[in-house]
Amino acid sequence: MFMALEHSSQDTYVKICEAVIECYPDSDVLPFYHVKTILANLSGVEFLVDHMCINLYTAFIGPYAHYDMCPECSQHHFDQIKFMKSNGCIKNPQAVFHTISIGPQLQALWRNPESAEKMHYHAYDDILIGSTYLNAVRDGRIKTKDMLLIISIDGAQLYESKSLDCWIYIWIIIEHSPD
To answer: Which domain of life is it from (predicted)?
Structure first.
């Protein structure tokens, strides 16, 4: 059911589960979180949740992980109402962003024999004829067993009163033939 609803919302999955349980109370319908956990364990692909500035200036990771305020706009890292009410014990970020790491996805492609067999597109097709690519191959920076990726990134304004609210990026795996 989860796979059949891959392009639907979480709410749709939950409502269908509720309907199934109402008709068949003894059915073992798994909650959404449980199914996602099983899929993450099977595939090795999970998403990461990191904190960010509410104005989208800074990701509170790496050297900024312990910052209490954004170095660009001075907005607080954590929800100050919850922070004050809990005497500094509850640190809920004001904003978060989700990342699906590319590494585990690529590893999953190589683990599957069918997709692994198809992962040599750049090695034998002449579509990649740009000088940057050809020079990298000639200089030995790109080898036959290397995996090539392209990243495309863009932001979108979701609310009129804010600048960019959502950043979307796409990894294009060159090893897969366009067909």
So the answer is: Eukaryota
